[in-house]
Specification:
The chain is an all-alpha fold. The chain has ten helices and no strands. Bound molecules: protoporphyrin IX containing FE. Protoporphyrin IX containing FE (HEM) binds next to helix 2, helix 3, helix 5 and helix 8.
Length: 192
């Protein structure tokens, strides 16, 4: 493992350490549940985007090592999304199924968030080399679904933003850029 690989793990774990540190040292915000939800959601999306940016970084910018970061970054992103959803379901709503359903029916941003999360689950579960071998060509096709899950998460973020949408717009722009780099003309250019 190279030093840069280790740095990826340190950077990806930093938001979790930050959340735990704040709790242990009593530096809570007025609404800690909201703060955890926001930080875990932000980290999930940022890491998923970083994972998507690895392929263009490798093929277009020539950062060869980035190919090895794609999977860990994606899995960390999913890990934060799982924490994000668990905070909502278990801590915020005490796993009350009918209250959660009522909230989902009322807020469209929760429906797209849940959709994004539902897409990410099978991708995380089949991210291993063994699953890649087992699924063959299907694996690549299936894992392209991440290009749907991330924009859905961005829509979720934009729709949930109450007043300040600057961060959400920044995420949307970065997502647009990463998706643009996956389009055929760019793909052709980098192959030449
Ligand atoms: C069942 C699925 C999900 C639920 C129930 C959910 C719930 C929530 C809630 C309640 C908020 C608002 C927090 C607040 O009050 O400020 C929020 C914000 C957010 N969520 Fe989710 N979410 C889900 C899925 C996802 C996924 C899959 C991602 C990313 C991959 C994500 C990323 C975000 C982001 C970036 C924010 C904004 C955080 C900020 O304020 O900076 N969410 N989510």
């Amino acid at each position: 493992m190279r030093r840069s690989d280790g740095l990826i793990h340190v950077l990806a774990l930093a938001p979790l350490v930050w959340i735990v540190f704040d709790q242990l040292t009593g530096q809570r915000s007025i609404n800690p549940i909201q703060t955890w939800t926001q930080r875990s959601g932000f980290s999930a999306l940022a890491l998923l985007l970083a994972s998507l940016a690895c392929t263009p970084a490798n093929r277009i910018a020539g950062v060869r090592r980035a190919a090895a970061w794609r999977r860990p970054l994606g899995l960390y992103g999913f890990g934060y999304a799982l924490i994000h959803v668990l905070i909502f379901v278990v801590i915020d709503y005490a796993a009350d199924g009918s209250a959660i359903m009522a909230e989902l029916a009322e807020k469209r941003y929760l429906i797209v968030g849940a959709l994004a999360f539902a897409i990410l689950i099978p991708l995380a579960l089949t991210s291993t080399a063994a699953w890649q071998r087992r699924l063959g060509r299907q694996w690549r096709r299936m894992h392209r679904m991440v290009y749907l899950a991330v924009p859905l998460a961005v829509v979720h973020q934009i729709w949930q933003a109450k007043s300040d949408i600057r961060l959400a717009v920044l995420f949307a722009l970065v997502t647009g850029l990463v998706l643009l780099m996956r389009l055929p003309p760019t793909t052709g250019a980098r192959r030449r």
